[in-house]
Design goal:
Among the domains are: about 70 residues, no CATH class; about 45 residues, no CATH class. Helix content is about 50%, strand content about 15%. Helix 1 packs across helix 3, helix 3 packs parallel to helix 8 and helix 8 crosses helix 10. The longest helix has 27 residues. The protein is elongated. The model has no long low-confidence stretch (mean pLDDT about 90).
Length: about 220
Amino acid sequence: MGAGLHPLDQGLLAIQAAFPEASYQELANWPLGRRNQALAAVHCASFGPEFQCWTSCPQCGEKIEVSLDGRFVASREATSALEPVVVDGYAFRPPTSRDLARLARDSAANRNDLALAVRLLLETCRVEKDSPVEWREEFVAQVEEKLADADPLAEILLTFECPACGAVCDKPLDLPAFLWAEISSAGRRLLSEVHVLASAYGWTEPAILALSDARRASYLEVVRG
């Protein structure tokens, strides 16, 4: 379930498992900071607080490990609704997962033109659209800065120094993709454990899954030892 979904939808599916009282549509309308805070909380509860990420140096291509204490994100206060920010008389609300999904479907936004994608996203988030906007570079930068101040968890940047060339770079952490990778890895590991124990003892899958993690690990140790 969820394997073929877009990473945005996979992230919302993970959150919905932790917040069953909230509808999928409601979660899709959360500001990105609220979404990221919930994703970090799910990771901490399910896999522990340490986020171990891998990236490549954009200067030399060296593979680099970056770690983050997820409690820093999970414990931050985030609200499900934020007031719009105003720049030069134009109001913009913080982006949501729904906005990013709409942008991902927009063919104009998928032309490797970051500046165009940003303008399209901001236009989607503009509260009143009764007058056109002149998307000056300075204006766009002001809107981005105010939105970042209003919802600081919307984008989580990991700063690292490359051990090979010394370059210092920032990379955004894609929390939906990161958490889903952990979920997929745990699912494959559990499937392997079920296969080993079912082959060794003839137990059914429900019986094996009913075992506690510690008890299942003990049986696996006996089988593999």
